[in-house]
Amino acid sequence: MQLLLAGASGGIGLAMLRQLLGEARWKRIYALYRRPSQALEALAREEPRLHLLQVDLSSDGDLEALPGKLEGPLNWVINTSGLLHDSERGMQPEKSLQQLNRDDLMAGFEVNAINHLLLLKALEPLLAKRDTLKVASLSARVGSIGDNRLGAGTAIVRARRRSTS
């Protein structure tokens, strides 16, 4: 069985990858990441089933090239990529409607909803061959629709509502 994990260098993705590598059923695991991670590279050196691919899910070119880097059909696709804050952009989680701005909202929707769908579009030729395909998009609790007790991330919650409704 083969699995593709997007967002593998982030907290949720890296933790999930470690769990998945402990399961013998995975013949090959493709781990997609945007920014290199020493922890991810260390896992790849130890684990021959792990194949790292640097892919920016916001890049149409990266997504178009992705299927050509994969071998055979995928059984599972798990996307853990997400955006709550971005120090490069000065983006911080908003705690009220007054803190919202268009650029940060659009960035949040792109990463937390749109990119998840565009990844599946890019992978469709490999997915159509599988009758038992499993697809999961995960997020942090702060992005929960039903349980956002942390009180942050108005934009991430709205993006998740859009991607699951």
Fold topology:
Elements lengths: L1 E5 L4 H11 L6 E6 L4 H9 L3 E5 L5 H6 L10 E4 L22 H26 L6 E4 L16 H11 L1
Parallel strand pairs: 1-2, 1-4, 2-3, 4-5
Helix pairs in contact: 4-5
Biggest sheet details? 5 strands, parallel
Low-confidence stretches: none
Which sequence of strands runs across the widest sheet? 3-2-1-4-5
Overall mean confidence score, pLDDT: 85
What can you tell me about this protein's structure?
The longest helix is centred in the last third of the chain and has 26 residues, at 102-127. The protein has 5 helices and 5 strands, in the order βαβαβαβαβα. By secondary structure, it is of the alpha/beta class. It is globular, with a radius of gyration of 16 Å. It has one domain (2-164): 3-Layer(aba) Sandwich (Rossmann fold), CATH 3.40.50.720. Strands 3-2-1-4-5 form a 5-stranded parallel beta sheet, covered by helices on one side. Helix 4 packs parallel to helix 5 (154-164). Helix 2 (38-46) links the parallel strand 2 and strand 3.
Quickly list its features.
38% helix, 165 residues, 5 helices, five-stranded parallel beta sheet, Rossmann fold, single chain, 15% strand, alpha/beta
Question: What is the structure about, briefly put?
Answer:
The chain has helices at about 10-20, 40-45, 60-65, 100-125, 155-165; strands at about 1-5, 30-35, 50-55, 75-80, 135. It is an alpha/beta fold and about 160 residues long.
